[in-house]
Design brief:
- This protein is 18% helix and 28% strand.
- It has 394 residues and is an alpha/beta fold.
- It folds into four domains: 158 residues, Molybdenum Cofactor Biosythetic Enzyme, Chain A; 56 residues, Molybdopterin biosynthesis moea protein, domain 2 (Alpha-Beta Complex), CATH 3.90.105.10; 81 residues, Molybdopterin biosynthesis moea protein, domain 3 (Molybdopterin biosynthesis moeA protein, domain 3, Beta Complex), CATH 2.170.190; 67 residues, MoeA, C-terminal, domain IV (Beta-clip), CATH 2.40.340.10.
- The longest helix is centred in the last third of the chain and has 19 residues.
- The chain is elongated, with a radius of gyration of 30 Å.
- It starts with 9 loop residues before the first helix and ends with a strand.
- It is an enzyme of class 2 (transferase).
- It catalyses: adenylyl-molybdopterin + molybdate = Mo-molybdopterin + AMP + H(+).
- This is Molybdopterin molybdenumtransferase.
């Protein structure tokens, strides 16, 4: 194994993970809009047309020209028929929302503001506003060639709606990275109540869905015992872009991940991170595949997946790195040790962050109830201090 040993800070590890993901990003593909939800753009999206494509009525009412009262003409309704005759001063036509405003119209008088007197339309006033136009001007939302969304943007339903209204039928997206999970350890059991000396596999039911929520495809989860040859076999897959393992990253006689990566010729990108929990994390690569090797303790593994796995998948999808947020503390948080402390928190009624109970490297109940993760700097922080925070991808 060609070791480029990096013992980074928490921030440096995130940057290294994002860069490694970008370097391994998959090629793009073109998909129809209906199949593009939650996908990541592989190319900029620009408008193909003006939006609206014509001056359109924003209200049901009357298109009017000049000052009233007005004589009435034929109705104008939403649809493909465009009114051909221009309005002249003193004329009005009933109009529905979305219909083409006739040439010559000054504004649309909404139905609540007009009344008919002796067969003519009279302006009854628009309370609180002086003659608003109630017209959606052609091109006020987009012009042809306008940049709608840059490459690396995640396509939400409203963004797909914008693409549709701007004339697109398909978009270019990054192919979703293929991921797999391998849970390592003799002590891990897959079902039922664990016997003394064993623990339940908590990762196979949870990690694949977390990866899918980030935009990866993960349909494979396996377990392997504490044996070097079987660890090599578990890590030696070549049919995925990202292989995530849990356990085996420390230095005991039963921890074989480093030796397995060495036998496979992998290059270490990150070995250990200055954060707790999660110090033993490893990130490695070999041709065509990235290895994110998480600690075996449940909370340590899941917090590492949030802290380091999220920017890694961001990179694989060509997205900008998801940046931390910020919250203010409801209580003092002590942290005298080096590096950062990741703590699950909930927001109280005042919007302040309070660490939850039942959280340690081996516990999960606190994380299950959390609103996010605090990133507490070395030296701790005091009540009211702003600290960085990580959103949870579930």
């Amino acid at each position: 194994m060609t070791a480029r040993l990096v013992r980074p800070s928490w921030t440096e590890a995130r940057e290294a993970a994002h860069a490694a993901g970008l370097a391994a990003r998959r090629p793009a593909e073109v998909v129809p809009l209906r199949a593009a939800a939650a996908r990541t753009l592989g190319a900029d999206v620009r408008s193909l047309t003006r939006v609206p494509g014509f001056d359109a009525s924003a209200m049901d009412g009357w298109a009017v020209a000049g000052d009233g009262p007005w004589t009435l003409g034929d109705p104008v309704v939403a649809g493909p028929v465009v009114p051909s005759a221009p309005l002249r001063a003193g004329q009005a036509r009933p109009i529905t929302t979305g219909a083409v405003v006739p040439v010559g119209a000054d504004r649309v008088l909404r139905s609540e503001s007009g009344r008919l007197e002796a067969g003519r339309l009279v302006d009854g006033g628009d309370p609180g506003r002086r003659h608003p136009r109630h017209v959606r001007l052609a091109g006020e939302e987009a012009e042809p060639g306008d940049l709608l969304f840059a490459a690396g943007t995640t396509l939400t339903p409203p963004r797909l709606a914008v693409a549709a209204v701007c004339g697109l039928d398909e978009v270019t997206v990054v192919r979703q990275p293929r991921a797999a999970l391998a849970v390592l350890g003799d002590e891990v059991t897959g079902s039922g109540i664990p016997a003394a000396g064993t623990v339940r596999d908590v990762f196979s039911p949870s990690v694949p869905d977390i990866l899918r929520s980030l935009g990866a495809v993960c349909d494979s989860a396996a377990r392997a015992p504490d044996d070097l040859d079987e660890t090599v076999e578990a890590l030696g897959r070549s049919d995925v872009d990202l292989l995530i393992t849990t356990g085996g990253t420390a230095h005991s006689s039963t921890d074989h991940v480093r030796a397995a990566l060495d036998r496979l010729g992998a290059e270490l990108v990150v070995e250990g991170v200055a954060m707790r929990p999660g110090q033993p994390l490893l990130l490695a690569r070999r041709p065509g595949i990235l290895h994110l090797c998480l600690p075996g303790n449940p909370m340590a593994a899941l917090t590492c997946l949030v802290a380091i796995g999220v920017p890694l998948v961001d990179g694989l999808l060509g997205r900008p790195q998801t940046r931390p947020g910020s919250v203010s503390l409801a209580v003092d948080v002590e942290h005298p040790r080096p590096g950062v402390l990741l703590q699950a928190y909930r927001l109280d009624d005042e919007g302040l962050a309070r660490p939850v109970a039942r959280q340690s490297s081996a516990m999960l109940r606190g994380l299950a109830e959390a609103d996010g993760l605090l990133v507490v700097p070395q030296g701790g922080a005091r009540r009211g201090d702003p600290v960085r925070s990580l959103a949870l991808p579930w």
